[in-house]
Design goal:
The structure is a single chain. With 316 residues, the chain is mainly α. The chain has a domain of 221 residues: MetI-like fold. The protein has 13 helices and 2 strands. A two-stranded antiparallel sheet has the order 1-2. Helix 1 packs antiparallel against helix 13 and helix 9 packs antiparallel against helix 10. It is globular and about 85 Å long. The chain starts with a helix and ends in a 6-residue tail after the last helix.
C-alpha cells in the first residue's frame, strides 16, 4: 500500500508539472498581455513606459524562461499577485474555493442520495412503469443544457413565484444562515439535476447486469433474503464502474460549473477561472486551473481506494 501511495503521488506531481507548462504555454500564446490592457486603459502611456513595464513584470524574456521563473517561485510558495484583484493569489482563491466546495458538496451529496436508490429501484423493477418514469427523468437530466435549466428555474422560482433569489450569495445587510441558504437552493438544484442522470443510468445498467450473474442465482438458491442479495451481493459489485463515473464528475463539477456560476452570479472557482483568463491574469489563472487539476486527480485517487473497499479481490 505504501508503494502504491508513493507511486500515485509521484504520478500526480508529474501530471501537475506537465499541466502547469501546458497552461502557461497556452496562456502565453493568447493575443495581448497585461501591459497591452494597461495601455488601452491609459492612453498616456508611451512605448517607453510599456517597455519598462514589460521588463518590470518579466514579459520581455522568452516564454520558457518566464515559465521557469514562475515555477521556481511557485515551488518556494510564492504564487504572485492577482492583477485583477490587486491581492495575493491565495487570498483571492480561498473564498472562491470555499464557495464552490459548498455548492459542490451539497449537490454531489444530493445527486448520490437520489441517483443510487433510484437506479436500484429501476433495476429491480425493470420494464415496469416505475422504471420507465425513472429512465425518462434520467434522459431529461442528461439532455438539458445547464444554462437553459438555470434560466428556467430562475423564471419559475424567482420571477413567477418569488420564492428564491435569482442570483448572488446574500442579501446586503442581512447576515443570517437562512438568508444565505436561500441563495444556494437554485444553483445546488441545478447542479444536482445535471449530475443526476448519468449516475442514475449507470447504476441501473450495472445493477441489471450484476443481478443476472451466477453468484446472485447461487445466493438466492441458498435462501438469502432479497434485501441481502441486492444490497450486500449485487450493489457492491455494481458500484465499481459507478464509482469511476462519480469520481470523474467530481472533478468536472469542481471546475466546470462555470455556466451556472455566471447565470446565478455566484463567485466560485469556475467564474474565477473564466475572469482570470479573459483578463490575462496569468498568476491567478495558473493556480486556479492547477487546483482544479489537483481536485480531479484527488477524485480519481479516492475512487481507486474505493475499489479495494468494494471488491476485496483488488489489492494495492
Amino acid at each position: 500500500m505504501t508503494q502504491y501511495l508513493v507511486d500515485r503521488i509521484f504520478q500526480s506531481v508529474v501530471v501537475l508539472a506537465i499541466m502547469s507548462f501546458v497552461i502557461y504555454w497556452l496562456m502565453g500564446l493568447m493575443p495581448g498581455d497585461p501591459i497591452d490592457l494597461m495601455i488601452s486603459a491609459d492612453p498616456k502611456l508611451t512605448p517607453a513606459d510599456a517597455a519598462r513595464l514589460r521588463k518590470l513584470f518579466g514579459l520581455d524574456i522568452p516564454l520558457l524562461e518566464r515559465y521557469w521563473n514562475w515555477l521556481i517561485s511557485a515551488i518556494s510558495g510564492n504564487f504572485g499577485f492577482s492583477r485583477l484583484h490587486a491581492k495575493p493569489v491565495l487570498n483571492v482563491i480561498w473564498p472562491a474555493l470555499w464557495n464552490t466546495t459548498l455548492i459542490l458538496g451539497l449537490s454531489f451529496s444530493f445527486s448520490i442520495l437520489i441517483s443510487i436508490p433510484a437506479g436500484i429501484i429501476a433495476a429491480i423493477r425493470q420494464y415496469s412503469r416505475t422504471d420507465y418514469i425513472i429512465n425518462i427523468t434520467a434522459f431529461i437530466a442528461i439532455s438539458i443544457p445547464s444554462f437553459w435549466l438555470s434560466i428556467i428555474l430562475i423564471t419559475i422560482f424567482s420571477v413567477v413565484l418569488g420564492i428564491f433569489p435569482a442570483g448572488g450569495m446574500e442579501t446586503i445587510g442581512i447576515d443570517t444562515t437562512w438568508d444565505k441558504s436561500k441563495y444556494l437552493v437554485l444553483p445546488v438544484a441545478t447542479l444536482t439535476l445535471l449530475s443526476l442522470g448519468t449516475q442514475l443510468r449507470f447504476t441501473r445498467s450495472e445493477m441489471i447486469q450484476t443481478l443476472r450473474q451466477d453468484f446472485i442465482l447461487t445466493a438466492r438458491a441458498k435462501g438469502a433474503s432479497e434485501f441481502r442479495v441486492v444490497f450486500k451481493h449485487a450493489l457492491r459489485n455494481a458500484m465499481i464502474p459507478v464509482t469511476t463515473i462519480i469520481a470523474l464528475e467530481f472533478g468536472y463539477l469542481f471546475s466546470g460549473a462555470l455556466t451556472i456560476e455566471i447565470v446565478f452570479a455566484y463567485p466560485g472557482m469556475g467564474k474565477l477561472i473564466f475572469d482570470a483568463i479573459i483578463g490575462n491574469d496569468f498568476n491567478l489563472a495558473m493556480i486556479a486551473l492547477l487546483l482544479a487539476t489537483c481536485m480531479t486527480l484527488t477524485g480519481n485517487f479516492l475512487a481507486d481506494l474505493a475499489y479495494a473497499w468494494l471488491d476485496p479481490r483488488i489489492s494495492y
